[in-house]
Amino acid sequence: MVELSVSLTVVLILTAVAIPSLMRSLRTYQLNDAAARLSDMLKFTRFEAVRRNSPVALRINNPSGSDWIVWADTVANSNPDPTEKQILITGFATLLPSGASPSSATILASLGTTSSLTTLSGTSPATISFDARGAVSPLAAYVLYLGSATNPEFGYRAVILLPSGAVQVWTAPTGGTWQRIG
């Protein structure tokens, strides 16, 4: 009986030590997953515009609370249809307004001093249009910030859409500087 008690105590102590690390890994995974899905949706919409040889818009809408619907509006009716590719950004990782994340000075310096970023996260509804060549129309660089409004200690992600249609993903810890990860 004593051996069982000691074994259970050791298991409980190891579990108590491992849970914070496991939660941090889970939250990091959720942020990376949301950023990757948003990046993929931007790329899909761009390639769809090139494939169709006509403009296609990516739409972002916030129907309630912190839930965001992002879809490629291939039928151009401003509503997510069952036949259109869609993602739902909900839960821990959500789209944040520009003031909620670290300064984007590092990103701007990397892109060039004449660049500016138009923040679309926190704006509902929002639209990004791609022309038949796959370029952003009108030419502008956009940023969508991802993170948790209630738990900023897990960091942030920024999905950058360049005027050419190229997509970059950046990461930053709370109060830290941005680094490109993809």
What does this structure look like?
With 182 residues, the protein is α+β, with helices and mostly antiparallel strands. The protein has a single domain, classed as 3-Layer(bab) Sandwich (minor pseudopilin epsh fold). Helices cover 32% and strands 30% of the residues. The termini are far apart.
In short:
The chain has two helices and eleven strands. The chain has helices spanning 2-52, 105-111; strands at residues 56-64, 67-73, 86-89, 94-96, 117-119, 126-130, 136-137, 141-147, 156-161, 167-172, 179-180. The protein is elongated.
Got a strand count?
11
* CATH-derived topology: minor pseudopilin epsh fold
Rounded mean pLDDT is 90
For the record, the count of structural domains works out to 1
Detail the poorly predicted runs. Answer: none
Give the % helix. 25-40%
Indicate the multimeric state. Answer: single chain
The CATH class name reads Alpha Beta
Taken from the alpha-carbon principal axes, the silhouette is elongated
CATH superfamily: minor pseudopilin epsh domain
CATH architectural arrangement: 3-Layer(bab) Sandwich
Q: How much beta, percentage-wise?
A: 25-35%
Number of helices: 2
Helix/sheet category: alpha+beta
Largest sheet: 6 strands, mixed
Radius of gyration from the alpha-carbon trace, in angstroms: 20 Å
Order of helices and strands: HEEEEHEEEEEEE
